[in-house]
Structures are given as structure tokens and as C-alpha cells.
Design a protein that fits this description.
The complex is a heterodimer of chains A (169) and B (130). By secondary structure, chain A is mainly alpha-helical. Helices cover 91% and strands 0% of the residues of chain A. Chain A is built from four helices and no strands. Chain A is rod-shaped. Chain B contains three helices and no strands. In chain B, helix 1 crosses helix 2. The longest helix of chain B has 42 residues. Chain B is rod-shaped, with a radius of gyration of 39 Å. Classes of the chains: A mainly alpha (169), B mainly alpha (130).
């Protein structure tokens, strides 16, 4: 009888030890998983911060280019006004250059028009991704915004060049 | 005897007629040849060096020079006579066309600027992470 009681006690002690060990192990595992997730989120947040920084820089450059474009536009308008006054003294070369300018300005306009509404569309997607806490969709939207901004920067630089060319006609 | 004399006269008339016809034909051929020569010499560029194996090179060059001199004379004669040649090209653009071109450029510039001005941008809140 004594033997049976001591056997039951030993089994009870062993079982308790096993349960405690298992709980500790799963806790450590969960902690590791959480820490891994946190690390992942931190890395993505760093990437997103980098993208946001790039968007801010592009925004500043676009604003600067807009001001430059406005100045170039005003100068080009004055030049056209002046040429219009003296249109009878225009040489065939000047007329050819003016025709070329019309064609170039039309192309520039089309290039810019191709990006119209893209930023607005992406900003809506961005807000939705933020609301849903969908980091992947958020990052994708930021990338798309950067691409649209880059296209606009190139287009604006070309437009400014083309408008300044009118001044030399 | 009279018969022989008549035949001789006939033969003489025939010979004269043939001679006359032949002479006019020869002079015509010569004239044609001369024109052809002139044409050839005009076709050749002035600065082109004569080929060593061409027998008529010097003659052709001389003819070309003559023809050029004749052309110059004709030109001066035209000037002297008070005639003027007015060369018209298709490059002339009317005042209305110039005005239309200017108007189009002006319109395109306005349209381009309007597009630049209406470019949409992000809101500041979109660039906040939290």
C-alpha cells in the first residue's frame, strides 16, 4: 500500500514539473515571436519613413519648379506679345521656330495631363491602407506617389526649358 | 544632136537639183550637231576636269565658255532692257497666318500653365505616419 502511495506521489510531482516546463517554453516562444514581429514592424516603419522623406523632398522640389515655371510662362507670354506686335518682320526661320514651339508645348501639356489625378487617387488608397493598418498597401501607395512626383519633376523641368527657348526666337 | 543637148541639159538640171537638196540637208545636220555639242557642254559641270581620253574635251570646254558668255550677255541684255525676274517661293506666310500662329502659341502657353497650376498635391496629414 505504501508503495502505491509513493508511486502516485512521484507521478504527481513529475506531471506538475512537466506542465510548468511546457508553460515556460510556450511563453518564451511567444515572446520571441512578438519580438520578431516588432523588429519587422520597426524595419518597415524605417522604410516608410524613408519613403515619406523622399515624398517631402519631391514636394518641395515640385513647389520650387512651379514657381520657376510661372516665371518662364510670364516671360514667354511677353515674348509672344512682342513678336505679335512685329509679326510682319518675322523671318521664315523665326516662323519655323514658332511652329516648333507650338508643337513642343502641346507635347509638354499632354505629358503633364497624363499624371492628372494620380496623386489624388493614391492619397485615397494611402488613407485606406492607414485605416486598415495594411503596411504593404501603405508602402505600395507611397511608392506610386514617388513615381508620379518624379514624372512631374522631369516634365516640369522640360517645360521650363521649352518655354525659355521661346525667349531666344 | 539636139537630142544629146537636151539630155545633157536635163542631166545638168538634175545634178543641180540633187546638189541643192544635198547641200541643205548637210547644213541642217551640221547645225543639229552643233546644238547637240552645246547641250552636252552645258550639261557638264564647270569645274569638272577634262578626261584625257576625250578628244573633244577642249572644244567642249570652249563651247561651254561661249555658251556661258552668251548667257551672261542675255542676262545683261535683260537688265538693260529694264525687265526684272521676280522669284516667288512657297515659304511666304501671310500676315493672317502669322497672327494665327501667334494666337495658337499664346493659347497653348495659357493651357500649359493652367495644367501646371491645377496639379493636385498631397495633404500634410497624408505624410504623417501616425
Amino acid at each position: 500500500m505504501k508503495k502505491i502511495i509513493s508511486l502516485i506521489l512521484i507521478i504527481g510531482v513529475l506531471l506538475t514539473g512537466m506542465v510548468v516546463f511546457a508553460e515556460t517554453a510556450s511563453e518564451a516562444d511567444a515572446k520571441a515571436r512578438i519580438s520578431e514581429k516588432l523588429q519587422n514592424i520597426k524595419e518597415r516603419a524605417a522604410e516608410v519613413k524613408h519613403q515619406l522623406e523622399k515624398i517631402r523632398l519631391n514636394r518641395a522640389e515640385l513647389q520650387k519648379l512651379r514657381v520657376e515655371a510661372k516665371t518662364a510662362y510670364q516671360k514667354a507670354k511677353s515674348k509672344v506679345k512682342e513678336l505679335r506686335k512685329n509679326k510682319d518682320s518675322l523671318t521664315p526661320e523665326q516662323i519655323e521656330e514658332l511652329k516648333q514651339a507650338v508643337s513642343t508645348i502641346k507635347q509638354d501639356k499632354e505629358q503633364l495631363a497624363a499624371t492628372a489625378g494620380d496623386i489624388h487617387k493614391e492619397s485615397l488608397l494611402l488613407r485606406a491602407a492607414k485605416k486598415d493598418k495594411n503596411i504593404e498597401a501603405y508602402r505600395q501607395s507611397l511608392d506610386n506617389i514617388i513615381n508620379v512626383q518624379s514624372t512631374r519633376i522631369d516634365a516640369l523641368k522640360k517645360m521650363i526649358d521649352d518655354m525659355n527657348k521661346i525667349l531666344s526666337i | 544632136m539636139k537630142r544629146i543637148a537636151a539630155i545633157l541639159v536635163l542631166l545638168f538640171i538634175l545634178a543641180m537639183t540633187l546638189n541643192a537638196c544635198g547641200g541643205s540637208s548637210t547644213s541642217k545636220t551640221l547645225a543639229e550637231g552643233s546644238t547637240q555639242h552645246k547641250m552636252d557642254s552645258i550639261d557638264k559641270p564647270e569645274g569638272e576636269a577634262p578626261k584625257p581620253d576625250d578628244k573633244n574635251v577642249s572644244q567642249t570646254t570652249k563651247e561651254a565658255q561661249t555658251s556661258k558668255a552668251q548667257a551672261d550677255q542675255t542676262a545683261s541684255a535683260t537688265k538693260d532692257s529694264g525687265l526684272e525676274v521676280v522669284a516667288k517661293s512657297n515659304n511666304t506666310v501671310s500676315s493672317e497666318d502669322k497672327e494665327a500662329l501667334m494666337r495658337e502659341l499664346d493659347k497653348e502657353l495659357d493651357s500649359l500653365f493652367s495644367n501646371i497650376d491645377s496639379m493636385e498635391d498631397l495633404q500634410d496629414s497624408d505624410l504623417e505616419l501616425n
